[in-house]
Amino acid sequence: MLVITDNATLRAQYDSLRANDIIVGRLRLRESEESLLLDLSQRGVHLLPSALSQLASRSKALQAVIFGPFMLPLTRAIHTHHDLIRAIGDYRKNDVTAVVTKLDRRNAGLGVHLWRSVEEVFTHASLGSIPYPFVLQPFVPECSDIRAIFLGSYSEAYQRHNPHNFRNNLHHGGKSKACRLSTEQKELCRRVMARGQFPYGHLDLLVTENGKSYLGEINLRGGIRGATITPADYQERVANIHRELLESLQKK
After folding, report:
1. For the chain, what is the domain count?
2. From CA 156, how far away is CA 213, in angstroms rounded?
3. What global pTM score does this model have?
4. Which residues face 66 on adjacent strands?
5. Residues 71-90: what's their mean pLDDT?
6. Cis before residue 231, ω within 30 degrees of 0?
7. Are residues 195 and 171 in the same domain?
């Protein structure tokens, strides 16, 4: 059983990897190389974190597919003009006007855009102004934004708010304050992590005026600005989770 903990060794040993070999840590892959995760999984190589969690962390469009039941109703991945045409009908049937789009591989709120209607999105996408794929979802004007961090037995959450921008990211000037997750919110996070095989993660929750919580997105890693955990403690806890997962596999 070979254990690889760095990408340089992975590249050098890639062709000789066998079933039950183990790769610890996220793989540094270019977008065109992500299918290597499938190849490794099919060959029986163990990935820590899982291949699914690594792929989902890289693609918001994939998240909209596999975590759709946990997101705002009508949230969907848009891959073609035909997807948008169908969305126009569905959103009109549900009296949804303003919508938000999220570009697939943008973080820190840089790929989030607000539109007056799906028709407006369709016009810009048809003219090439919006690259496919992207995520489409209804705009909820009065809502709260919560970032939750789960690292094994450790967890914390804080609310993010920006009175001057619907993007609550701290990167865009939002402020944060610690908060406590409800039992329902913790269960939502656990179910999402289980579905995506996330051993740890950063989850963004959208909370509506009536108190209903939905998943915004999830990532294996994210900024900890606004959190109480220190960078050193964060890295140590992630390393401990990796070590525990590795030891569990080696005992089998």
Report:
1. 3
2. 17
3. 0.91
4. none
5. 97
6. no
7. yes
Supply φ then ψ for residue 4, to 5 degrees: -110, 130
Question: Pairing state of beta strands 76-78 and 200-208?
Answer: unpaired
- Asked, for residue 225, whether it belongs to a domain, the answer is yes
Distance CA 100, CA 96 (A): 11
Return the pLDDT at 88: 96
- The pLDDT of residue 163: 61
Token duo for residue 192: 């999402």
Selection from 128, 141, 131 nearest residue 98 by Cα: 141
d(C-alpha 212, C-alpha 140), whole Å: 12
Find the domain containing 199 and state its range. 143-241
Q: How many CB atoms lie within 10 A of CB 216?
A: 24
Check whether residue 154 and residue 197 sit in a common domain: yes
| Tens-place pLDDT, residues 137-192 | 999 988 889 999 999 999 999 998 666 555 655 455 566 788 999 999 999 999 99
Alpha-carbon gap, residue 151 to 144, rounded angstroms: 23
pLDDT digits (tens, 9 = 90+) for 20-43: 999 999 999 999 999 999 999 999
Domain annotation covers residue 59: no
